[in-house]
């Protein structure tokens, strides 16, 4: 029968004894509090690792601190988001906090926020949240909140966006300069995702329309419905436009995920990229950059987005009151799916 010594959970007193520090010093390290030297923090963290010490979450919760932040994301299958998660973790985990992730893909953002508040999550980063402004402000009153990919601003929360107007303009300009005229955009065409410019979907569609006008191609402007920016949407919309007698020579997909669906549709229809069709995505995902795909796309710098989101959230949790906003400048990465029109 195992002894109590081998089965009992390590305590803060064990950590303090091994690190040759006071329990107060260990507590300060756990709280990432001001005034702890790098040498002391290193000793305490080494002791914690050796003892496999984990702070008791329920006890922390009773003291009003769970040392956990929440991340809400809209699509588990979109390979763009993990790069943001990785950047956030690099900032958050060294502060002795944990991250809880949840998706709003099969439920509402409002329900996910409520579940996190019920669990006393100390701060939340919401990626591209589909929720009303009033609900966002209400959520921010319960816990510090940082938004990404949402063009809305409030004193209640912080915001990081990519310059979607510039990103869409760069895609249209790139295709137009190659000689394309019939450039179709795949994006939502109805509801608030198509009309409210706080959402990236509407923002990119609006910028596409304006860029086509500036390029003298207003008569060729067409947006084909992709209601959720998914692979399935891209495949369905791709099949529809590529089956026409007079199909477009270029497609601007709202995301790389949508572009992947178009690639599958084009393959099934025997349409060769870029010889018979130029295709551009948005997000510059690692999947899209793979050699066999080599997708032209817009890079939003997810690492910078994640790093800024974590920095903003941590400073809010430490008492900052004034809201902050940041806009990331995207860049177009031209690869092998775009070229001059063949005919």
Description:
There is one protein chain. The protein is an alpha/beta fold. Helix content is 44%, strand content 15%. The chain contains 15 helices and twelve strands. The protein has helices at 4-7, 12-19, 23-30, 38-51, 57-62, 81-92, 109-118, 133-142, 164-178, 192-195, 200-214, 231-242, 256-268, 286-289, 302-317, and strands at residues 68-73, 98-103, 123-127, 145-148, 158-162, 183-187, 222-225, 250-253, 278-280, 297-299, 325-328, 331-333. The strands form three sheets. The chain has a six-stranded parallel beta sheet with strand order 2-1-3-4-5-11, with helices on both faces. A four-stranded parallel beta sheet has the order 7-6-8-9, sandwiched between helices. Strands 10-12 form a two-stranded antiparallel sheet. β8, α13 (256-268) and β9 (278-280) form a beta-alpha-beta unit. α6 (81-92) packs across α15 (302-317), α9 (164-178) packs parallel to α11 (200-214) and α12 (231-242) packs across α13 (256-268). Mean pLDDT is 91; it is low at 1-6.
């Amino acid at each position: 029968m195992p002894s109590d010594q081998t089965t009992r959970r390590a305590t803060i007193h064990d950590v303090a004894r091994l690190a040759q520090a006071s329990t107060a010093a260990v507590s300060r390290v756990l709280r990432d509090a001001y005034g702890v030297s790098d040498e002391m923090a290193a000793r305490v963290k080494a002791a914690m690792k050796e003892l496999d010490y984990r702070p008791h979450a329920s006890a922390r919760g009773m003291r009003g601190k769970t040392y956990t932040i929440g991340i809400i994301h809209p699509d588990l299958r979109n390979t763009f988001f993990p790069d943001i998660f990785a950047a956030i973790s690099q900032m958050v985990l060294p502060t002795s906090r944990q991250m809880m992730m949840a998706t709003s893909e099969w439920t509402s953002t409002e329900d996910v926020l409520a579940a996190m508040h019920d669990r006393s999550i100390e701060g939340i980063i919401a990626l591209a949240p589909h929720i009303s402004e009033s609900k966002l402000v209400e959520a921010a009153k319960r816990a510090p909140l940082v938004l990404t990919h949402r063009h809305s601003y409030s004193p209640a929360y912080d915001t990081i966006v990519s310059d979607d107007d510039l990103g869409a303009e760069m895609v249209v300009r790139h295709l137009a300069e190659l000689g394309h005229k019939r450039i179709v955009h795949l994006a939502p065409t109805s509801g608030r995702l198509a009309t409210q410019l706080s959402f990236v979907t509407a923002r990119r569609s609006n910028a596409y329309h304006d860029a086509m006008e500036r390029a003298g191609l207003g008569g060729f402007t067409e947006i084909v419905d992709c209601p959720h920016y998914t692979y399935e949407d891209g495949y369905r919309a791709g099949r529809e436009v590529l089956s026409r007698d007079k199909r477009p020579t270029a497609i601007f997909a709202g995301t790389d995920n949508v572009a992947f669906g178009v690639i599958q549709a084009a393959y099934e229809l025997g349409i060769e990229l870029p010889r018979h069709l130029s295709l551009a995505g948005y997000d510059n995902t690692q999947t899209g950059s793979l050699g066999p795909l080599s997708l032209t796309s817009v890079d939003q710098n997810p690492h910078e987005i994640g790093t800024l989101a974590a920095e903003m959230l941590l400073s809010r949790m430490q008492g900052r009151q004034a809201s902050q906003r940041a806009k990331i400048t995207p860049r177009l990465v031209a690869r092998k799916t775009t070229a001059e029109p063949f005919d």
